[in-house]
């Protein structure tokens, strides 16, 4: 598997915390990491990559703001606010718009910065955080375990004076990989992976080198694809420990799995019936919301009806409309989707609205009779490295057709 997109984005933002070079390996070559490298350069840093997933970032000096058009292109840019504020005393960011999957609020991030002594001003278009002198360590109680909120606040706390405690912190694997990186830079971050993280700040951070953890969401996507389309697939460099809830669910469905230390074998013999099983997304270590769309595609091939509940985002069922156009039977009722199967899907021309709905539509197309055309496929390139090549290597009949990428989106993967 390639390196984790969500770990790489936060870790690339951490390069702003030190004037020394950060040498990263296994950075996924995708649009979002290329954009994050552009943003690091736009705020004064330097970025050098070898095209093989190795990137060196060095922010010897940092300005206080992310150019508007860049922040708007990627919601995850919100994770930069903490490092910018902690390094320069000011962080300015265009208010990251909501996107297809929900409003994507950030009030928890801002409350945390205020607790650390920053003044935070919100205009219609911008968020501006300022601190007179250094941030000070604080007790931060999050109302919900926001992932980028936890990441941004932990990074800010590493440069703050004193001790910071974050309660109800996010526990995702990418939060843990960021904290490993910060400690290698000389920070003192404890409790990563639990809901309480303590940071002893005030140290000068240094450069280091780090290998990005493999992407459990990429691995989960290919495991679900193999289960849906049928076959016998072995996933190498698979972070099984990060995928336990999803793998338990796939076993309930009737998928045959063999976990060996760093590999996962997924088998579904042709003709083997899959059972429809209810699923609700939850924060780590629950079933990842970023695998919900893919699981829904799988359930169109399973025997019976099940309810899929999306508890993390308020609007993350766009793929259902497209799946129904391919012949699925899915009824949406608020945060619940009722899926009845199995249904023989038919190829169709379908549109992608975000990274993971795109993955769901690829999976559905692999199960469908006939040819499907997936439009706005550049969303897939935001989050999956060499997706077409990897599926073709598994025996899928998939090809990329040149299509216009929206203006400003074209960035060569780093
Ligand atoms: C991160 O987004 C991931 N992105 C998302 O992955 C992932 O779906 C999400 O975490 C949940 O796991 C990156 O890591 C770059 P949240 P983030 O803040 O941090 C609400 C993908 O496909 N909320 O944990 O933006 C929010 O509205 C992407 O890889 C507040 O109400 O997610 C949402 O409903 C998509 N107030 C929920 O919490 C806040 O202050 C989860 O948001 C913050 C969040």
What distinguishing features does this structure have?
alpha+beta, elongated, single chain, binds ligand EPZ, four-stranded mixed β-sheet, 414 residues
Report on this model:
- With 414 residues, the chain is an alpha+beta fold.
- 33% of the residues lie in helices and 21% in strands.
- It has 14 helices and 20 strands.
- Strands 2-3-1-11 form a four-stranded mixed beta sheet, covered by helices on one side. A four-stranded mixed beta sheet has the order 7-8-10-9.
- The model has no long low-confidence stretch (mean pLDDT 94).
- Bound molecules: ligand EPZ.
- Ligand EPZ binds at residues 5-6, 9, 75-76, 102-109, 144, 146-149, 174, 289-290, 312-313, 355-356, 383.
